[in-house]
């Protein structure tokens, strides 16, 4: 009825209902077991959260939580929050988030490059060169990110080929890695509030992003803690190899 539809629209559960119809199966945020539904709607705003048949706990308690609480739990790298976001919600912002994070990283590098330059000539040619430097930094950041992801996928495929057998497995893991890189958005505040401790802040941001990536791999593929970190380590090796290549070419990165 109209009242139930309005309630679902207000709480955001209408989106979950559509996703449920489209995707069919969900995951229990506690044990990672498959579930046919997250909740049952008895109309008039009466909902009952489904119980997992494996662990006998609520399939997804986060459907009743405020988005801010879910975000805080994700920042704390809780596996339950990651499973809720990756498996039980319909979020398709990973592409836009990736582009925005790359822009933030390119802007940071471009700003550091301009700080190291002593040329203050306002000539149009100089301004054009500075603009080209930003595009170059964006391209370098994109290549480094791509090499990092390629290293992770290669390592995981080599260690556990059965985990990445289908195209959907690759897409889901790629989505998880891009979404878990949201910590790069903190690069802009770190630059705006410039301080003597900015390099330390940037190091902490890098570590936080890597921890989030590790948790995303672990949750998506249901692995132990060691294999995700090994895959990330190999990804970093490939990424640093690309950085060394650019440095040998004489490009500032």
From TrEMBL:
Q: Where in the cell is it found?
A: Endoplasmic reticulum membrane
Q: Name one GO cellular component term.
A: Golgi apparatus
Per UniProt, which keywords does this protein have?
Answer: Endoplasmic reticulum, Lipid metabolism, Lipid transport, Membrane, Transmembrane, Transmembrane helix, Transport
The record's Gene Ontology biological-process terms are: intracellular sterol transport; regulation of plasma membrane sterol distribution; sphingolipid metabolic process; sterol metabolic process
Check the UniProt entry and state the signal peptide residues, or none.
none
- The parts of the chain that form a coiled coil are none
TM regions (residue ranges): 137-158, 170-193, 227-246
Stated membrane topology is: Multi-pass membrane protein
State where it is primarily located.
Answer: endoplasmic reticulum
InterPro entries, sorted? Arv1
Q: Which Pfam families match?
A: Arv1
Q: Name the family the entry cites.
A: Belongs to the ARV1 family.
Question: What does this protein do, in the record's words?
Answer: Mediator of sterol homeostasis involved in sterol uptake, trafficking and distribution into membranes.
Provide the protein name. Protein ARV
């Amino acid at each position: 009825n109209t009242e139930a539809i309005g309630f679902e629209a207000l709480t955001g559960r209408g989106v979950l209902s559509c996703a449920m119809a489209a995707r069919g199966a969900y995951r229990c945020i506690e044990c990672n077991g498959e579930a046919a539904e997250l909740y049952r709607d008895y109309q008039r705003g009466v909902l009952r959260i489904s119980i997992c048949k494996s662990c006998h706990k609520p399939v997804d308690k986060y459907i009743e939580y405020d988005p801010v609480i879910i975000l805080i739990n994700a920042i704390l790298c809780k596996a339950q929050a990651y499973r809720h976001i990756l498996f039980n919600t319909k979020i398709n912002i990973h592409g836009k988030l990736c582009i925005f994070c790359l822009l933030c990283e390119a802007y940071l590098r471009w700003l550091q490059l301009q700080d190291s330059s002593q040329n203050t000539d306002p000539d149009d040619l100089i301004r054009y060169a500075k603009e080209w430097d930003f595009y170059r930094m964006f391209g370098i950041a994109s290549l480094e990110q791509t090499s990092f992801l390629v290293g992770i996928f290669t390592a995981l495929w080599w260690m556990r080929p059965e985990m990445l057998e289908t195209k959907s497995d690759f897409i889901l893991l790629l989505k998880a890695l891009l979404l878990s890189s949201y910590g790069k958005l903190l690069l802009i505040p770190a630059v705006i509030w410039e301080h003597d401790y900015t390099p330390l802040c940037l190091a902490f941001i890098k570590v936080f992003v890597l921890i989030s990536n590790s948790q995303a791999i672990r949750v998506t593929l249901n692995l132990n803690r060691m294999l995700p970190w090994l895959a990330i380590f190999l990804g970093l090796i490939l990424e640093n190899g690309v950085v060394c290549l650019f440095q040998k070419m004489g490009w500032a990165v």
